[in-house]
C-alpha cells in the first residue's frame, strides 16, 4: 500500500487507509510499504506519495497484480492536479487513467466516482466499495470502557446541536454556505459547532469553532452533537460524512458528488433553507438515527470486500 500514516488531524484518505491496514492486520494480512520489496499484490491509492503510471508499469512487469483505488481530483491536491484539461477531464484523474494498461482491477469509492472516471475514458474491471471507518473509534457508545452505554439521541425538549466536521479549509468544503447559515442562527436556539479548521478570512458570529482534533477526540465531540451538517461539494466519498453517521448522527447534506448516495438513508437534503432542513430533520430524527445503527460504512464490513478483490486478482 502506497501511503504513510500521518498522526494528528489529517485527510479522509489517510484515515481510511490507516483503518484498512489495522483491519487487514487483524485478519492476518501483512501490509508492506516498500514498492521494491516482496508482496503478492499491490493496492495503490490514487497518486498518493508520488505513485505514477511508470511505477505501476514496473510493478506489473514483475508479475505482481495491481488493484487501484481511484480518487477524484476535482477537490484534491495541488492546483495542477485539479486543473481541467481541454477535453474536460481533471488532470489528476487523467494521470490515474494512465495506470489502466498495468492494473488488474479498479476500486471506486462511489457510483458517482465511477461515473466521473467513465466519462473520462475509463474501461476495465471495477468494483464500487464505499469507505469505512474504524468502529472502535467512531461508534455510538459513550462512557468509560467498563461502563459503555448507547449514546442518547435528541429530544424535542432540548435545543438541537449541529456539527460541521472538516480538517480542510478548501473552498469546496461548504464555507460559503456556512457563512450564510451563520447569519440565520441569530433567531434560533439551534447551535452549530465547526469541529476542524476554518478558511482564512472567515469569522463566524454564531457558529462555534474548535479543533481540529485527532480521531478519538473528534469522535467524542461528534457524539455530543445531534446532527451532522455536510455541505461539501464533489466529494468522492467523504470520510467526515461516514464518521458522523457511525457516531449516530442524522445528516443534513448537499446533493453534490457522492453525498446523496452515501447519506440519503440517514438524512435530509439541504436545498438552501437551513430552517426548513432543521424542521425536516427534527420531524424524522428518531427514524433516521435508528437507521444509522446498521449503516454499511464500517471497516469490519469494508475490509473483507477489499480482501475479496485482492485475492481475486492474485
State the low-pLDDT regions, or none. none
Helix percentage range:
25-40%
Which outline best applies? Answer: globular
The overall pLDDT average reads 94
Q: How many domains, in number, for the residues? A: 2
Record field, number of beta strands = 12
Beta-strand percent range: 5-15%
Q: Helix- and strand-based class?
A: alpha/beta
At the first level of CATH, the class of the largest domain is: Alpha Beta
Annotated CATH architecture of the largest domain: 3-Layer(aba) Sandwich
| CATH fold descriptor of the largest domain | Rossmann fold
Strand order of the largest sheet: 9-8-7-10-11-12
Largest sheet geometry: 6 strands, parallel
Termini distance?
Answer: 15 Å
* Rg over alpha carbons: 20 Å
The CATH superfamily name of the largest domain is Glycogen Phosphorylase B
| Element-level helix/strand string | HEHEHHEHEEEEHEEHEHEHEHHH
Described by its quaternary structure, the protein is single chain
What is the count of DSSP helices, taking H or I runs of 4+ residues?
A: 12
Amino acid at each position: 500500500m502506497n501511503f504513510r500514516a500521518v498522526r494528528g488531524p489529517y485527510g479522509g484518505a489517510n484515515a481510511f487507509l490507516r483503518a484498512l491496514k489495522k483491519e487487514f492486520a487483524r485478519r492476518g494480512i501483512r501490509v508492506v510499504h516498500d514498492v521494491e520489496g516482496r508482496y503478492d499484490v499491490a493496492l495503490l491509492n490514487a497518486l498518493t506519495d508520488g505513485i505514477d503510471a511508470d511505477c505501476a508499469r514496473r510493478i506489473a512487469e514483475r508479475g505482481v497484480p495491481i488493484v487501484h483505488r481511484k480518487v477524484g481530483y476535482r477537490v484534491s491536491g495541488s492546483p495542477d492536479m485539479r486543473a481541467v484539461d481541454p477535453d474536460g477531464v481533471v488532470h489528476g484523474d487523467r494521470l490515474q487513467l494512465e495506470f489502466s494498461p498495468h492494473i488488474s482491477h479498479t476500486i471506486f469509492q462511489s457510483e458517482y466516482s465511477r461515473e466521473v472516471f467513465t466519462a473520462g475514458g475509463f474501461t476495465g474491471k471495477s468494483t464500487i466499495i464505499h469507505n469505512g471507518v474504524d468502529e472502535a473509534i467512531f461508534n455510538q457508545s459513550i462512557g468509560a470502557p467498563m461502563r459503555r452505554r448507547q449514546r442518547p439521541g435528541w429530544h424535542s425538549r432540548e435545543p438541537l446541536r449541529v456539527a460541521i466536521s472538516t480538517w480542510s479549509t478548501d473552498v469546496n468544503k461548504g464555507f460559503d454556505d456556512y457563512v450564510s447559515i451563520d447569519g440565520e442562527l441569530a433567531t434560533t436556539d439551534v447551535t452549530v459547532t465547526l469541529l476542524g479548521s476554518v478558511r482564512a478570512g472567515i469569522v463566524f458570529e454564531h457558529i462555534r469553532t474548535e479543533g481540529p482534533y485527532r480521531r478519538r477526540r473528534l469522535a467524542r465531540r461528534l457524539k455530543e452533537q445531534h446532527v451532522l451538517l455536510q455541505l461539501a461539494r464533489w466529494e468522492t466519498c467523504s470520510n467526515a460524512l461516514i464518521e458522523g453517521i457511525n457516531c449516530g448522527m442524522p445528516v443534513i447534506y448537499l446533493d453534490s458528488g457522492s453525498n446523496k448516495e452515501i447519506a440519503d438513508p440517514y438524512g435530509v437534503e439541504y436545498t438552501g433553507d437551513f430552517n426548513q432542513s432543521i424542521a425536516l430533520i427534527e420531524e424524522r430524527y428518531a427514524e433516521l438515527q435508528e437507521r444509522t445503527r446498521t449503516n454499511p460504512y464500517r471497516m469490519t464490513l469494508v475490509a473483507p470486500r477489499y480482501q475479496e478483490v485482492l485475492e481475486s486478482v492474485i
